[in-house]
Specification:
With 232 residues, the chain is of the alpha/beta class. Helices cover 34% and strands 15% of the residues. The strands form four sheets. The protein has a three-stranded parallel sheet with strand order 5-6-7. The model has no long low-confidence stretch (mean pLDDT 95). Bound molecules: zinc ion.
Length: 232
Amino acid sequence: MYHSIAEMPRGTVMRSLHVPPKRFAWQMRLLSWMGYRGLGMSALHPYLSGEKQGKVVGITFDDGYRNNLTHALPVLNRWGFSATCYLISQQLGGVNHWDLDKGIPENPLMSEEEVRVWINGGMEIGSHTRNHLRLTSCSHAQSNEEISLSRPDLEQQFDTAVDHFCYPWGEHNETIQSQVESAGYLTATTTRRGRATPLDHPLLLPRIPITHHTLPHLFVMKILSQYEDNHG
Ligand SMILES: [Zn+2]
């Protein structure tokens, strides 16, 4: 689970959400050297369902920051990896407005044109709702719109399948989960920490957070050991 790939000055609020480009490049190189393939959610799906087995790592980016395009895409291409970027369908070309009240700096989101470059670069998009609201605080009708309509928004705009969903802030409950299911998504990712296995519910997938603080030894431990799984 990545968000922003950028070098941010010391003192930046929630600097942890930004992984410096050099560190990201090192992480992808390391995965490749260890014999892993980085995959977006569609390519990962058969491994999650237990149909296929192999050394694979799912790579996801939440929110759709422009810096994913400039700093992550060339690196992913270099190693032949794919990844899924979860977009907010009504906020393309905007900023992370949901963060600003916490003092987190503005960070531009990919525009429609930039999303096309991402897709044409061999990458995948998923849905992160229409507006990045707190779904568990929304009315039933509103959360349903956010979840179900973001899918056709993106599918029509980009002429591509959108089968994968990511809960904003990882927030979900039974109602939200059933709305995700009704909307037809194949997988949904949370912020619960751990390595996903075929035993996980496909709409409640755990992830491994990679942050500014994920130094090299920790990155290796997160991928290869039960380190994350124990954080349940
Ligand atoms: Zn988000």
